[in-house]
Amino acid sequence: MRKNIVAGNWKMNTTVSEGVELAKGISNAVSNGINNAETGVVIAPPFTHLYAVGEQINHDKVCLAAQDCATEEKGAYTGEISVAMLKSIGVKAVILGHSERRTYYGETNETLLKKINLVLKNDMKPIFCIGEVLAQREAGKHFDVVKEQIESVLFTLSADDFKNVIVAYEPVWAIGTGVTASSEQAQEIHAYIRKLISEKYGTEVADNTTILYGGSCKPSNAKELFSQPDVDGGLIGGASLKVEDFMGIVNTF
Ligand code: PEP
Fold first, then answer.
1. 235 CB less than 6 Å from ligand 1?
2. Which of 48, 148, 206, 218 is the most buried (most CB within 10 A)?
3. Which residues are catalytic?
4. How do residues 15-62 score in pLDDT, each as one tens digit?
C-alpha cells in the first residue's frame, strides 16, 4: 500500500546555520521515534544548504530533497544545478512544478518533462506539484486544470517510471495564504487524481501512488485533511520552518 509522507518545502528561507539547526532538530525528533515510523519524512532546503544539512541528518529516517533542478544534464548552463550534482550529495527527491516556479520563473510542461525524466533516470523521486489558481477554482475548472497538468507531463511516463512519482495537489489559492482547502475539497480532487491514474496505469499503480495535499497545512488542520482516504500526507511550506510545527504535522499520522 502507498506510503504516507510529510515533506517540508523550506523555499528561500533560513541561513545555512539556521537550516542545519532546523534539520538536526527534525532528524533528532524522527530518529527518537517520536513519529510513526511508517510515515516518510522529507525536507527540501535551499540548494546552498543541501550539503551541510546532508552531513547532519539521519538519511535512514529523513529524505533529503531539492526544490528544483536543471533541465540539462551538464555543461554551459550558468547558475544551474544538475540532477547528478544533487545525487552526488545524497539528495533523493526533487520537487518539480511548484506553482511559484510555474508563475515566477516560467516553468512549463516542456521544461518539467525534461526535468522529470532526468530525475527518474538518476533513480530519484520527483514530487510533482499540480493545482489550480483561484479564478480556475471559481469557474469550476479545477478538475480540467489538474487533468491537463497530469496528462501533459506525468502520463508521458512509463508505468515503471510513474511508480516512483509522488504527486502533490496544491491549490494555488491556498499556498501561503492561510486559506486551506476544506477536507471535502481535498478529498474530492485527490480521488479524481487517483481515478485518472487508475484509468491510465491501472488500480494497483493508482492505489500505490502517494498523493500529498499542500496549501496552508498546519498542525491544527493536518489531522482533518490527512484523515481523508485519498490524502496521503502533505507538502508543507510555512509550517515546515519550525521543528515543533513540522513534527506536529508529521505526528498527525
Ligand atoms: C508550498 O509552498 O508547497 C506550501 C504548501 O506552502 P504553505 O504551506 O506555506 O501554504
1. yes
2. 206
3. 98, 170
4. 999 999 999 999 999 998 766 667 899 999 999 999 999 999 999 999
Cβ neighbors of 139 (< 8 A, separation 6 or more) are none
**Residue minimizing CA distance to atom 1 of ligand 1:** 237
- Spatial CB neighbours of 78, under 8 Å, sequence gap ≥ 6: none
C-alpha cell at 206: 493508482
**Phi, psi dihedrals of residue 194, rounded to the nearest 5°:** -65, -35
123-169: pLDDT as tens digits: 999 999 999 999 999 999 999 999 999 999 999 999 999 999 999 99
Whole-number Å distance between alpha carbons of 144 and 65: 29
Amino acid found at 87 = K
In angstroms, what is the span from residue 54 Cα to ligand 1's centroid? 22
Q: Is the CB of 236 under 6 A from ligand 1?
A: yes
